[in-house]
Fold:
Amino acid sequence: MIILVPVKRVADPNVKVRVKSNGEGVDLSNVKMSLNPFDEIAMEEAVRLKEKGVATEVIAVSCGDAKCQEVLRTAMALGADRGILVETTEELQPLAVAKLLKAVADQVQPRLIILGKQAIDDDANQTGQMLAALADLPQATFASKVTVNGDQVEVTREVDGGLETLAMDLPAVITADLRLNEPRYVTLPNIMKAKKKPLDVLTPASLGVDVAPRLQTLKVVEPAQRSAGIKVPDVAALIDQLKNTAKVI
Structure:
């Protein structure tokens, strides 16, 4: 069984990003970039399934410019067998990414597609659902546990009311939540091995996919500064503040 794991290159979660002075977007110059944390969880789950003998091959795929090879090498150091880069300098929105992933899936024919529930740069939480719809595949989002039994996969997912367990026929699409697993550390020997693993480069044109943006970003602004809090001596003063200042009572 082949498992396909889409991965995205995003600003490192430990770095504070800033909005460009012209409001046209986020300034990523000289910003450390890394593998999207939710995609790292998805990759860990795919590798664990391979280690259990469920999967025979794990393929990492990324869409973007040539610098995305960095996250593909990281994914291969985590355990992916090979990588695929769909190279383009166009701004890629969730629907375009879903179309590209569907085209790649049509070529490699994975039995399971596992990806992060969202990317931490735009928090769109759309690509997995759009991919499942385009490919006409069953889907389970926000997975906190994945068990493959023959031609079926059982997924426990987190919902507002608690946990929900779904059983789906393969092939299927799964999006990984934060509590699915704890990704392993990348070791130096695996980093060296990843450099020798195959990495294929495709283009949207070769896949027959139009990735022209459908949405236009008008302006990007930083969140408004929050006013400082105040201390009150007792409950009566707190209630007075809520009544007269916050006006919530």
Notes: The domain at 2-246 is CATH 3.40.50.620 (Rossmann fold). The CA atoms of residues 38 and 178 lie 7 Å apart.
